[in-house]
Amino acid sequence: MKTYTNSAQFIPTKSVVTIGTFDGVHIGHRKILKKLILRAQEMNCESVVLSFFPHPRMVLQHDTSIKLLNTLDEKIKLMEELGVEHLIIHPFDQEFSNLSAEHFVKNILVDQLHTQKIIIGYDHRFGKNRSADITDLIEFGRRYDFEVEQISAEEINEIAVSSTKIRTSLLNADLETTTHFLGYPYEFSGTVVQGKQLGRTIGFPTANIAIDQKYKLLPKNGVYVVRVTLDDQTLFGMMNIGVRPTIDGQTQTIEVHLFDFEREIYNAHLTITVLKFIRDEEKFESLEALQAQIFTDKSVALAFLSH
User: Fold this and answer.
1) Nearest to 54 by CA among 90, 22, 8, 100
2) Radius of gyration of the chain (CA)
3) Sign of dihedral through CA atoms 108, 113, 114, 115?
4) Could you tell me which of 132, 163, 147 has the C-alpha nearest to residue 67?
5) Distance between CA 305 and CA 261 in Å, rounded?
6) Strand partners, 126
7) Please, is 296 exposed, middle or buried when counting C-beta atoms within 10 Å of its C-beta (0-12, 13-18, 19+)?
8) Which residues of 116-132 are buried (b: 16+ CB within 10 A; e: fewer)?
9) Which residues neighbour 230 within 8 Å (Cβ) at sequence distance 6 or greater?
10) Order of strands, edge to edge, in the sheet holding 15-19?
C-alpha cells in the first residue's frame, strides 16, 4: 500500500475512492473497504481511501479532548492488511475546511485522484460549512463523469453503532465487546520511561509507559492482563492504568509488569495488547496490602494465560 500526506502527492491513476476518518478500521468499516477493493477490481481501477488528520472536530470545534481508537500508524497498518492500495491522509485545517464543494470535487476528486467512482454514505456532507450532500455529489458526478455509489443507511448505522459500542465498552473495560466490534484486540504503543521504581520495592518491577500519541483512547483505569511486543519478542504480563491512590498519586500512569523478565528496557518501544480486565484500581491501607493484592492479580492473570 502506498501512503500520502496530502492528495497532491497522489500519482494519477484511475481510482475508486471512499472518504472518511475510519477510526478503528472496525468491522463496519471493513465492509465498506472490502466493497471499495471489489469495485476497483471490477472497474480495472485502483482503490483509494481519502482520510483526514487532525480529526475535523479538532479543527472546526477546537475540540482537543477528542480521543481516537487508532493512531495514524495503526490505521496505516490495518488498511494495508485489508488490501487497500492507496491511503491519503490529507491535512484537515481551516483552509481545507473553507474549500467550496465544487472546488473539492473538481480539484481533488477529479483532477488529482482521477476518480471513476466514489463510494460514500447517504448522509455524507462536504464543502465549506458542510453545505453539499449526496444529491450535489451525484450532480457533480454527471458533470465530471464519475459514478456515485451510496452506502446504505443500514451500513452507516452499523458503522455508528460499532464505533459507539467500541468506545463505550473500552471505557467500561468490556474487552469482549471491544474485540468483537473492532475485529481485533485493542492495543496501543509507547516508550518505556523512568518511573519512581516503587514496584521494585514490593517485588513487582514495572515498566512505565509514555504513550506515542496523547489523542489515543485508553481503557478505563484498572488492572489488566496484557501481551507485549518488544522488538520481535512476545511477552506477557499485567498492566495498571491509574493514579496509584495507595501512594496518593495525582496523575495517570501506565505501568506494566512483565512475567519472567528482568532486563532493563528504558527507552524501548512496546506495543501493548489488552487481553483481559482483572479489577478496578483501588486504594489500599498499606504497601503490604497492595503487594498481597498484586500476588492475587498475578494468579488470575496466569490462570487466564494458561487456558
Assistant:
1) 90
2) 23
3) negative
4) 163
5) 16
6) 132
7) exposed
8) bbbbbbeebebbeeeeb
9) 265, 268, 269, 270
10) 2-4, 86-91, 46-53, 15-19, 115-121, 147-151
Residues 293 and 284 sit within 8 Å (Cβ to Cβ): yes
CB 104 within 8 A of CB 136: no
Q: Are 23 and 70 in contact (CB under 8 A)?
A: yes
Cβ count near 47 (within 10 Å): 26
Question: What gap in Å lies between CA 20 and CA 168, rounded to an integer?
Answer: 21
Cβ–Cβ < 8 Å for 170, 258: no
Cα–Cα distance measured from residue 5 to residue 89, given in angstroms and rounded to the nearest whole number: 5
Say how many C-beta atoms besides its own lie within 10 A of residue 73's C-beta: 11
Bridging pattern class, strands 86-91 and 187-193: unpaired
Query: Which residues contact residue 102 at a Cβ distance below 8 angstroms, ignoring those fewer than 6 apart?
Result: 127, 140
Other beta carbons within 10 Å of 303: 10
The predicted model scores a pTM of 0.91
| CA 154 vs CA 31, 121, 151: distances in Å | 12, 10, 8
E strand residue ranges, the chain: 2-4, 15-19, 46-53, 86-91, 115-121, 147-151, 187-193, 207-211, 222-230, 233-242, 253-258, 269-279
Looking at the DSSP bridge assignments, the partners of residue 139 are none
For helices 27-42 and 72-82, the axis angle rounded to 10 degrees is 50
Digit-coded pLDDT (tens) for 186-235:
999 999 998 766 656 566 888 999 998 999 999 999 999 999 999 999 99
Per the prediction, the chain carries an average pLDDT of: 92
Q: Is 242 helix (H, G, I), strand (E, B) or coil?
A: strand
